[in-house]
What we know:
Number of strands: 9
Bound molecules: flavin mononucleotide
Strand content: 5-15%
Radius of gyration: 19 Å
Shape: globular
Distance between the termini: 47 Å
Number of domains: 2
Low-confidence stretches: none
CATH topology of the largest domain: TIM Barrel
CATH class of the largest domain: Alpha Beta
Amino acid sequence: MEFPKLKNKLVLAPMADISILPFRLLCQKYGAAMTYTEQLSAIAINRGNEKTLKLAERSREEEEVGLQLFGRNPRVLLKAAKKLEKNFDVIDLNFGCPSKKIVNQGYGSALLREKDRIKDIIKTLSKGLEKPVTVKMRSGFKKVEALELVKVMEESGVKAIAIHGRTKEQGYFGKADWEIIKQVKEAVSIPVIGNGDVVNGEKAKELLDYSKCDYVMIARAAMNNPMIFKQINCYLDDKKEIEIMKEDKIKLFLDYVELCERYDFVNFSNLKLTALNFCKGFEGSKELRVRLMKVKTKETLIEAVKNF
Ligand SMILES: Cc1cc2nc3c(=O)[nH]c(=O)nc-3n(C[C@H](O)[C@H](O)[C@H](O)COP(=O)(O)O)c2cc1C
């Protein structure tokens, strides 16, 4: 199966502790054409870990959703993917996470140094699954080495590549390298999803025009503002710019709470984190932050955001 043709250019990135079902639905409502789960451990899925399986829930209301897995053993990854593939449109492999905990176990970006293993993983999953297998990667581990890798990935059966234009060494520092996104797009004939530093319509257009990538993936800017997809879609369609007011953000948070309740995802620390993320950058944000540090219940948290 091929990578689905998306209704617009915008994709919500996988984000640990953020990309849960209610958040994905909110981003979809405001125009994300596709979303991903956060990276989930193949081992934990196979063991039936409850918390992981909850994070792997998908709603019928959702349009295109990718399940992102991390692991390094092809058979373990295949088993986990087989268990859940019927619920998802795409099975995505994480070859990009730079966190020490992940890299030290040989997962995420550590795999960028293991070309043969990458080949083996992709071939095993592509053969064994019905859904398309995709990859999300960084430009390299210590240095840029994506070009060689993406050709191997394509030959092994991958159906799309999302590339974050930073090496593992760069973490989140410095500017994302869009040149490598352009080079990857020239090197392969499958869809390429460009990622890194897209924060508004101008940047999205710049990345699309410069690299000719097929889609743009957004992480941090969406974490603070799921309405960014609407703003960028308007910009790309040459429509009037949308300004987001404090009231919009409050409503967004209340909608998020409702979705969490509907899908049984209520978690106090996640709600607090989301309130802080959504309310960043407005007058009164600092005061709200101080208040939120003290709240102890969902009700007082909601009240504080309403009074923001
Ligand atoms: C809080 C957070 C969690 C993330 N978790 C994941 C993850 O689970 N899987 C993954 O592939 N990338 C993860 N990333 C990386 C993003 O998907 C993305 O590649 C990166 O933030 C660059 O995009 P941006 O400039 O739009 O933020 C995470 C990033 C952030 C900020």
